[in-house]
Amino acid sequence: MQTINREALVRRHNPVVRSFDKFSSLTVGNGNYAFTVDATGLQTFPELYENGGVGLGHLSNWGWHTSANPMGYEVDKFPKTSYQTFSGREVEFPYMPRGESSEEYRWLRMNPHRLHLGAVKFLLTLPSGEPAVLENLQEIEQTLDLWTGVISSQFSLSGETASVVTCCHPEEDMLAIRVKSNLLSSGQPKLAVHFPYGSASFGGSGAVWDRPEAHQTEIMAATDRSVRFSRTLDQDSYFVTAEWSNGTLTCDSSDPHLYALTSDSDEVTFVIRYSKEELAATLPDFEQVLSHSTNHWLNFWNSGAAVELAESQDMRAHELERRIVLSQYLTAVQSSGSLPPQETGLTMNSWAGKFHLEMHWWHSVHFALWNRPELLSNNLGWYQEILPKAQQLAQSQGYEGARWPKCVTDEGINAPCYIEPFLIW
């Protein structure tokens, strides 16, 4: 029997991007955390990818935000509507007719919502000091190496080339970035981190950038090569730690949530970790994270099943093989974490970032069929965690057993809707 060359199989389907295209964002992640980039390898031009594109999210399974609730809205207090079942028994549901709305309904419907943890991006300027726009970036060449989980990006600005390597730690919510360019010492590209407020909207990246007064970014500790932030949004908080190889990180005078790194070198590395709880441990350096990513994906692709269609004479074979390979990468990044995935995974928000349990098997059951059952079992435990709530819901409606919710956060509570509370499985 002929052995499949798995590296060749995977790498011949590496996505390549040569322009700014709102449908061609690329993602690195580990199943619980993901970072989606534009053609610069970072989140430099997020506005291009909104409004119908594949947004530049920076999402995790622990990162949720609940808007202020001065009116004290609660699902249990929302008016119930009775419907007669086939048995003739009346059952109450938190129903809101389609097309109708209220402040109470909107708040319950969109809270909690999955939170954009913060943009890591370039602040790009021209020699004149004016901000660079998309048209100023030329010679774009970007590749996601599926075999190692690493995005390599290259572009030119003012006649000089910038190269960017972006990867994710396989076990921690951590990015590692390396930038090489003669432009760095001129300050034309500055590496920056920018923190947003949470977005209580149906979709999008999970970020609101025009409410700086509604959240807080505080420096807890800092050295010449590191910083630790505390982030607060209403009653929610999280922590961010960053370390870099050289340069100075300063806060932008016009935005208390924007920090830019100025370097006098032609190369800089930057590692940044996000966490729900404060973590005191120092960060690995760029090369260590790169090695962890490479080893993780080598193990992924060399385990489980593989299908190769290279010798097929069917004209559809190459495209089918491409979809098989890409879907394995995407679902591992988006759907193999501690919670059932949302419909758009961790790339961007849909339904405010909540996950739809009737879609769970689409996203995750295939892991077992490809002999990677551990990636499925990672998020099955959540059902056991919310089992008491599912049993309580069934009992409140006169049913035996458990009634699983549909569109929920990790709390497992259905918000009012015109359809979701009615679905049963």
Main traits of this protein?
425 residues; alpha+beta; Beta-galactosidase, Chain A, domain 5; 2 domains; 9-stranded antiparallel beta sheet; 4-stranded antiparallel beta sheet; 9 helices; 24 strands; 20% helix; globular
State the secondary-structure class.
alpha+beta
The overall pLDDT average reads 94
Q: State the major sheet.
A: 9 strands, antiparallel
> How many structural domains?
2
Question: What is the name of the CATH superfamily of the largest domain?
Answer: putative glycoside hydrolase family protein from bacillus halodurans
CATH class of the largest domain: Mainly Beta
Number of helices: 9
**Gyration radius, in Å:** 23 Å
Which bin fits the share of residues in helices?
A: 10-25%
List the uncertain runs.
Answer: none
**CATH topology of the largest domain, which one?**
Beta-galactosidase, Chain A, domain 5
List the strand order in the largest sheet: 1-10-11-12-13-22-19-18-17
Shape: globular
Distance between the termini: 44 Å
Q: Quick one: how many beta strands?
A: 24
**Which architecture of the largest domain per CATH?**
Distorted Sandwich
Beta-strand residue fraction: 25-35%
